[in-house]
Every structure is written in C-alpha cells, then in structure tokens.
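Suppose you are handed a protein chain with no further information: no name, no annotation, nothing but its sequence. What can you learn? This example shows the usual starting point.
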Amino acid sequence: MPFDKISKILVKIFGSRNERLVKAYLVVAQEASRFEEQIKKLDDETLKAKTSQFKAAIKNGARPEDILTEAFAVVREAAKRNVGMRHFDVQLVGGDVLYEGKIAEMATGEGKTLVATLAAYLVHLTGRKVHIVTVNDYLAKRDAEWMGPVYEALGLTVGAIQADMDTAGDERKGQYACDITYGTNNEFGFDYLRDNMKMSLEQMVQGQLEYAIIDEVDSILIDEARTPLIISGPAFDDTSRYKKADQVARKLIGLQSSYASLKKQIDSAERSIAGAQGELADAKKAKDKKRIEKAHKVIEKSQSELETAQAMLEGATEYYEVEYDRKAVHLTHEGVAAAQEIAGVGSFFTGSNMEWPHLLEQSLRAHVTFEREKEYVVIDGKVVIVDEFTGRLMHGRQWSDGLHQAVEAKEGVTVKEESQTLATITLQNFFKLYEQLAGMTGTAATEAEEFMNIYKLDVIIIPTNEPCIRDDLEDIIYKSMREKFNAIAEEINDISASGRPILVGTISIEKSEALSESLTKKFGLEHEVLNAKQHAREAVIIAKAGEQHKGRDGQMYGNVTIATNMAGRGTDIKLGKGVAEIGGLHVLGTERHESRRIDNQLRGRTGRQGDAGSSQFFLSFDDDLMRVFAPDWTVKAL
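A reasonable first move is to predict its three-dimensional structure. Written in structure tokens, the prediction is:
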C-alpha cells in the first residue's frame, strides 16, 4: 500500500499531529475552567494579591507550569471584570501555546489581543520583561490602552512605545521599564541599534531582550524578515548629481517611448488575432458565413498591423530593460551610449564618471517602477514611503543607495544629501536576539516549515470558538482595468442599496481615491476612504465600517469603506444592528497581492467569530500581478 494512503488511514484513526496537540492543550484549558467559580468569589484586592502569591511559589521552587491553570483563571476573571471580556477555552489554548514559545494560528476575529494577556502574565511571574510587538503605532497604543486595565488589576505596569517619543528621553525609557511593553517591530529594532551606539549603560533605554509575543508574526518574520533597519548619518553633500541624472533619465524615457509604443501595438495585434481565430473556429462550427467573413477580415487587418509594427521595431532602439517584479531597470549598450551623449561628460567608465550608470538606473527606477500615491506620497515637500504591507506612512524612513534622492529629484522637491550607514540589522536577526519568541497570526500554517527552519518556532492551529460561515465567492476576471473598475462601482452601489455594508480593498492610495471619485460621480454614493492620508481618522472610519446609514430617500444603506492595506491587519469591524441578518459585511478586493496571506487578511475582516459575511476579488489582465506573472500566451489565448 502506498505511503500516502497509509498516512491518511493513520490520520483518520489517531487524528493529525495538530489535532492531538490541541486535545492536550484543551485538557489544560478545562482544568483552568475548574478554578473559575473559586476565583469569581475573590474581591479585587485578593485577586490582585494572587500575583504576589504566584511569584512567591515560583521563588520557592514551583514550576510556572504548576500554577498555569490557576494563573489563567485569574487573568480570565480580571479581563471579565475590567474589560468585559471572558477568555474562551480555545483562547486559553492559544495562551498556553504562546507561553511555550510557539506560534498560535488563530482565525481573524478570534481575539488574539486578549489571548496575549495570558502568556504575558505567566511570563511576568517568572521575572521576565515582556515585549508585545504589533505592526503599527496605532495598534500598539490601542492594545496597551485596551488591555491595560487587565494587567493593572493584577498589579502589573503597562507601557507603549510610539514613534513620536524622544528617542533618548525619559518617556521612552519609562515605557520600557514597565512589566509589559507594546510597540512596533521598527521601534523595538531601532531602539536596540541606538542603544548599541550609546557610550554608557545609563544612556540606554531598552534593557534586556527576554520574551516577545509578535502579533501578525508572518508579516514581521516572513514578509519583512530581510528588511534592514538602518540608522544613518550624512555622507555626500553634493545633491546636484541627482538632478542631472533625473534630466538624462527623462530624455531616455522619451527616446524609449517609441519602442514601448511599438511593443504595445504588437501585443494588441497579437491579442486581436488570437481572439479572432477563436471567433473563426466558433463560426465555422456554427457554419455562420457572416461571422466567418468578419473574423477573416479582423485577422487580415491585425496581421497587417502586426507586420508593420514588427518591421518598425527592428529599426527602433531599446535604451533600457525593466524587471517589474524586482522593480529593477538596466541600461542597454545603446542606452549607455545615448546617456553619455545626453549628459555630455564623456565616457561613463572613466574617472569621476563611474557613478553615472548607477545614478541613471536609480533615476529610471524612480520614474518607471515607483508610483506616487502607491509606493510613496509627497507631504509638505517631502517624499514619505508608504509601507507595502500595511499601507501606512513610514515617516523618517528612506530608501538606500540613492533611490530616495532619485525619487525626490523626480518629484521636484528638495533633494536630501545621501546618507551612510552607521548601524544596521535585519528584523530576522534582531528577533533572534530574544531569549524566547512567540507569535500570533491568522495565516501561518503555509509558512510552518520556514518558521521551524529559521526561528525554531512550531505552528499550532487553534480551533475557532464558532464555525466560520463566511462565503468566499469565486474571483471575477475582466479584460481591462477600466471594465473591472466600472463593474466594481456597480457592485458597490448594488450591495450598499441592499443594506449590507461593504469594505473595498485597494492596493494604493491613488486607486482608492480614483474609485472614490468614480462612486461620487456615478452614483453620488456616501462613503469613507481609509488610506495613509487619513490615518488620523482610522478609528472613526473602522468603527462605522460594519454599520448602515439612512439615505435621503429614507431607505437604509450599507456603509461603504474604501481602504488600502491599512484595513488588512488588526482591524476589528463590528456589525451594526440587523446587518448579520441580511448577510453581514461584504469584502471586495480590487486586486490580488503577491502574498496570498495578505489577501486572506483582507477576507478575514468579515465572517469573524461566526458572523455572516462574504468576500470576492475582482481582477483584470491589466493588474500588476497579471502583468508580472501571467505569460503572454495565457492572456492572448483568453
């Protein structure tokens, strides 16, 4: 009998490894539940005193595991009294998994923020500081304030690091002195680098890296693992070279335009021929002479256009090649020759001209592969990077190797002097410095092998408290982006008119604003836009995203929220009164992301904790992902 069949039989008999582990954890959770009635009778002061009793027991030789069940019952009661939330048994399982230094995969909406309190409390009892890592400042502050009363009721102190705090001030140092400290991966990482540049221990703010719970662990330890955190200082004060390179790049782009135009004509003609050939085959089967004649004419005309464009392309020059998937641009031999002539500095490969090819390629990257309102925005005359994964502004961060200066020259803002690296570390290497790591996310199982190989972190899938009844509909694919967005606008209007709220996920600020304008012009539809420009109103917008509003005609309409990746992680959208009964929140994705987990995070905004909901993606062959990964023959065939 084949091995895979034997494996399936054994799984049916004994259950999967994950199921067996979860059963063992559930036994612990049930034991914690036995303490509930006893703990419930304690007054607030006696409940707080439990922390001192647990610490004394550990000091006298008890293992943390010996008091785990009662400690969890204490945290559960503190949460119930102070934030009105009682941990479910499956959340106790998650807390146990985190305490053991593993990754708890919990479906979105299953209360990861609350689960962290269990492990954080137990780790604190062992005398270690706890860092809880979130993906942005908003969540760090929100979670610290939200869960703060639980910790404080048990005698613990809680802090939150924010990017706008003085990097060397007492406020930041005070937050790290707390028992539990919330903050982003960037803030924790940069504070580590800054501390290592200090001259004395008294100047350091962070302290020991002992235990960390990483929320959205797949985003931080997988997607952004190789992202370098860099502290830099000034290097070169001559910024005029970036402006010169920008001028040359603009001229090369102009020269390349005829080549690019011919490539588009060839592509269009080939698609037209492929479509007409399909039509011809169908017409022949149907023996429809008019359709056959019409298809032949289209093929003849397109063939003629194709041959003309191909002939012209032979005489056209390609000055640079673009790799859209890597955001890379490479000058061709002809491109170097043309650039040398335009720049008027002689050969690029002699003396002080040696930096020209690099400067030019960075300038071309800035123009060809980096879009304003997608990869960056311009605020008060400064280029601010937009985080690819979270959709949030990254104030104070800049691209390296002169790319940031190239983008500044492109946008016509003041070009900052180039910097040199003073200290750097990748997120992967930084988090390996902790004595123990644990993580939470809704999407980790697909990367379980990578977590184990790189970080020695096991992934345990935690069952949901209620079954997920979300309806994930099939993707709809359109030929062009224009057709797709017209259909999206119609869909949004129809769903809102049905009374259901709808969350629309876009991949850039530009597209979120374009869709907003379209909805206003076509339907005059009331809606909210959530992107990096409106981050200050995030809490207000999210609070209303699952509700309804009364229209001018007196009818109830579903609220419409158009958002970038900002709404993809850590946002808990509550359903308004009566919304669940008519289908719940609908999520519409306007494009697929390279990372399937980011798509799943968007889907996960609906159907939380057993609520009704649905999701669907609208795609087109003009989408970035299709353009990069779909082979030409696939598009032509369709």
